[in-house]
Amino acid sequence: MFVLLGIGLYMMIANENLVNKLIGVNLFQSSIFLFFVSMAYVDGGSSPIVPAHPTEGDLLVASPLPQVIVLTAIVVGIALTAVGLALIIRIYSEYGTLREDTLQEVRSDE
Fold first, then answer.
1. What is the pLDDT of residues 44-84, one digit of tens each?
2. Virtual CA dihedral for 9, 13, 16, 22, nearest 10 degrees?
3. Which residues cross the membrane (predicted)?
4. How far is residue 87's CA from residue 80's CA, in Å, rounded to a whole number?
5. SS3 of 46, please?
6. CB 21 within 8 A of CB 12
7. N-to-C CA span, the chain
8. Rounded (to 5) percent helix, strand, coil in the chain
9. In angstroms, rounded to a whole number, what is the distance separating the alpha carbons of residues 46 and 84?
10. What are the structural domains of the chain?
């Protein structure tokens, strides 16, 4: 998780290419998903369905909330990636480059 977080953060900050920045955002998001899932793990826990006559061992259950949050975040991440790629295509068709420094120079000349 921490390796993916570091690689994603580095790609967002150090790369000049917009596609590589978007890949870095996706790696960063994936590391956060792994973090949530790893924090939700309960050693010896069962599914969150409580039986009709629970014993003391049946009461150790895993919370389904982190998994639901991660599933929602995955959908939001896919939408973010789609919008980002659409913007990148539009920027490339308008300016002919995807390098951030070149785009700043072109925009300052206008």
1. 777 777 677 767 666 677 788 888 899 999 999 999 999 99
2. 40
3. 21-42, 68-89
4. 11
5. strand
6. yes
7. 43
8. 75, 5, 25
9. 39
10. 2-41+63-109 (1.10.287.3510)
